[in-house]
Amino acid sequence: MNAEATGRQSPTRKGRLALLVGTLGAPATWAFHLFMSYGYAPATCADSPMWGLHLITVVSLIGIAVAATVAFLMWRGRLPIQGGHVQGVAYLGLLGLLLCGLFGALILLEAWPTWVADPCQGLGAPVGPA
Amino acid sequence: MAVGQRDLATRIDAHDRLTAIWSRPPGFFGWLMGVNHRTVGIRYIITAFVFFVIGGIEALILRLQLARPENDLLALQAYNEIFTMHGTTMMFLFVVPMVEGLAMYFLPLMLGARDLPYPRLNAFGYFTFLLGGVLVYTSFVVGTVPDGGWFAYPPLTNRDFSPDTSMDFWLLGVTFIELSAISAAIEITVGVLKFRAPGMAISQMPLFAWNMLAVAIMILLAFPALILASTMLEFDRAFGTQFYNPDAGGDPILWQHLFWFFGHPEVYIQFLPSVGIVSMIVPVFSRRPIIGYIGLVLSALAVAFLSFGLWAHHMYATGALSILSASFIAASSSMIAIPNGVQIFTWVATIWAGRPWLQAPMLFVLGFLVLFVVGGVTGVMVALPAFDRQAHDTFFVVAHFHYVLIGGVVFPFLAGFHYWFPKVTGRMLHHRLSVATFWTTFVGFNITFFPMHIVGLLGMPRRIGIYDAGLGWDGYNLASTIGAFILALGILFFIVNVQKSWRSGVPAGNDPWRGHSLEWATSSPPDQYNFAVIPYGGSREPLWMEDRGIFDHDPEEDGSEPLAVQLAEPYADRREMLVTTLIDARPEYAVVLPGPSILPLLTALAAFVVFLGFLTTYWVTAAGVVAALAALIAWTWPSEPEGEHERPRPPARHEGPRSTAWWGALMFIVFSAAVLIPLLFSYLQIWSANTEWPPDSYERPDLLLPAISSVLLVLSGFILWWGNRGERDERDSRMRLGFSIALLLGAAFLAIQGWELVRFEHPWTEHAYTSLYYMVVGFHVLTVAVAMGMALWALIRSYLGHYARGHRNSADVATMFWYYAVGGWLLVLACAYLLPYVGPSALEFQL
Fold it and tell me: With a threshold of 0.90, does the pTM exceed it?
């Protein structure tokens, strides 16, 4: 039975966006958090405020929450992405939800040192074998 | 009612016709023209294995030198050359091409497809791999063998410290080989997304396909960083640019960032296919479905993403990172143990709950589980800055990555070879020789590499060719050397086994292991076309379905024959393949694939000549560019309207995401962006390393002309969109007008930016600032030129009348790439023209 005959629609532009956000939103948000924090951290040793790093974390956690909501709705079949409940969409929703858990935890883990580490303290010269 | 295989006479007739259509021409010339996925796949596998043997022999020579203290078997220069070539061979010429070969060969079979979407690109990729490998090894012939290590850090590898052509061979060869990986990645991604059997929803895909999908996307994102880094280093060496020269504003640390942004994902690019192989084998030899399918998919995706956040853990010892920056990387590096742990527990649970059948593939899987856990645990150790700074550049790290790369990659490869050998050859491998292979390699491996942990913790640095007696290292090194020869003996057993069994092994039948995936549903070896009727894939273990035959398809709603069955009857004597929807794999239409051609070889040869020019004279490069352009034009010349030979029912629609060409173009854009972003990062990195930006002797760039050219380019994007909408509505004149105006605006952009480059008075050899300016702006001007070429192509096809309803790939693809070129330019504008107005970053720690 070909795609035309089943009555299912191809995902609309909004549907494709929902699929992307729900499935890949969490890793994308984590990538944002890591690269922004990594890029901004040296500046905190100069004259940029530390709360900039915390802001990046808060924005990232909001991103994870959005991705998790979309993923949950996909999983439960509440987003009419292809004109009804589609097994593959629900599966991607569940996958997205699990990814939100993993990458949300990682964002919190990465945020922890921003509260305790001195941004001007270097690792120093290597102490390995001569 | 199900529609199954046709009657015998029809099937025999169809078999003869399909075989004729899918075969390559006879003779040597025909051999060169072969594009079939199995032809290309087996070439990859055999060539990569030859390189594996060469790299292994190099390893044995290294171990002989280190067998005892103060040994003089090798001169130290020769030692440097051989360890460089060993690493280079194993990383670039063995593992990744082997992964590509296995995917080329088995993915279409597992997906229920007849081939991959771009067979000629496949063949081109193989030839670039082969020629790149030949180029790297030609250095032995001319006597300037690369000696800067497989990661080629500058300043050791710049012109001052490597004045001969040795590192040029390395840089050019490796870059050329990367082109092969990129082409394979595009092929695999689109193949997995669009060429799945009907019913094989994304939740039913074989785990090997899931892992290869992740790997292919990782290649597209990671390899461009190395292509860029090695191009910049080659430019430093060949033309005197200053990207990595700190005396002229450059930064050697930039190489480490770019190299490891490629290098760490590379480890997982090598490992994830092994996860796929093991996940296919474990259920078969545990005689039950895999436990935790979603956990394995989750792990593949998580590892794929996380691997891009670990690059800087190779740089803890550079002193460039603050504790805060390093902690972000340490967190990601430690977190990757979670998905890897999920994988291990999933396999163990499946074996535990099943009825294990200890055949050769399963032995290698069990060996892999043990070795990879050891490699994984030491991986978590070196992820932590405190420990890494002690163990950095010692043999502990050598032990760690060999446990990961031999234990975690070569053992699964051997498992896969034993598992799929019957499918490829129709014969079984000799069981006792296989068992001997396993035990010899397993024991030899551990004797070789386990002592390296200890000798590393005792302080023995890696990459040393000689050491003093009495440091407590002697016995461990001798043990490692003995172990290496035992390991080599195991590989020799394997080679003998393959050689004997291929000729005279016991016939295997179609499915000797009672496998669950679709490759076991066809003959051994498979027919040229793999499947006459495209199989049904609506289960994670389709061959273990009890309620439905593998070739049974539901009829169409109007009672007509389903497309998957129709394909058994060739149409217009063309190579056809079923295209299905992305998520739930519903049949869409039958696409016609190109047949055998000599053009992939000619194009690869022409591109090879371009690279050769850097080693000889630039006239050779110029000749290569002309030849490559000619070959590309011949390859893509629009000889017939789009969709000319496709079945009329159901009507194909090559539009947007339905079309394989659209997906291919999207992957090409991903690749292009993955070059541009590290290039912009390079600009930021060097900017952050300088206290004056631009340096004193330079004025800030004039913004008037770039502003004008930017407006023109953005405007051209809107006009192209307007024109393409016209094509969508079948209004040819509007499309032609829109594309023509956009091309004129693009030409104006090129003229203005070309003038900008010409009037910039400072040569690119003067300072890193000028090198970056030319590189960043020049690269994007080239990108716009490519976009214009594609738009011109689309326009020509319109004038030739090649578009019809549902067939306008060229216009869609050109428009999509043009949008990318416009968006990319805005980033380039911000970086190259606006950042100098911000001034120096003056940061204590670099990015």
Answer: yes
